[in-house]
Amino acid sequence: MTDFSSAAFKRELKQLIIDECDKDISPDDIGDDDKLVRGSLDLDSLDVLQICMAIKNRYGVRIEGSSTARKVMVSTNTLAAFIASERA
């Protein structure tokens, strides 16, 4: 069973974000509390949609609606917490 609060899981999420958004950085360059949207990654709504689809495919968790996506995609920590709560 996956520990959704572990550093390894958060690193996996960061790699997923990097891959889906075609960013040329390392997961180590993203802090757990760094803003994902309008932060240093400069993610836009299309990036968020791609990440949401990848999370559904990989973890079976749906992030529905733009208001939910805005709340969930604040940081790696909020994204990991949402996935953990949905998988519980």
Describe what this molecule looks like in 3D:
The protein is an all-alpha fold. The chain has a single domain (7-87), classed as Non-ribosomal Peptide Synthetase Peptidyl Carrier Protein, Chain A. The chain is 56% helix and 0% strand. It is built from four helices and no strands. Helix 1 crosses helix 4 (76-87). The longest helix has 15 residues, at 7-21. It is globular, with a radius of gyration of 12 Å.
Question: What is the secondary structure topology, with strand pairs?
Answer:
Layout: H1 7-21, H2 45-59, H3 66-72, H4 76-87
Tell me, what's the shape? globular
Order of helices and strands: HHHH
Strand content: under 5%
Over the alpha carbons, how many angstroms does the gyration radius reach?
Answer: 12 Å
Tell me the distance between the termini: 11 Å
Quick one: biggest sheet? none
CATH superfamily grouping: ACP-like
Counted beta strands:
0
Q: Domains counted in the coordinates: how many?
A: 1
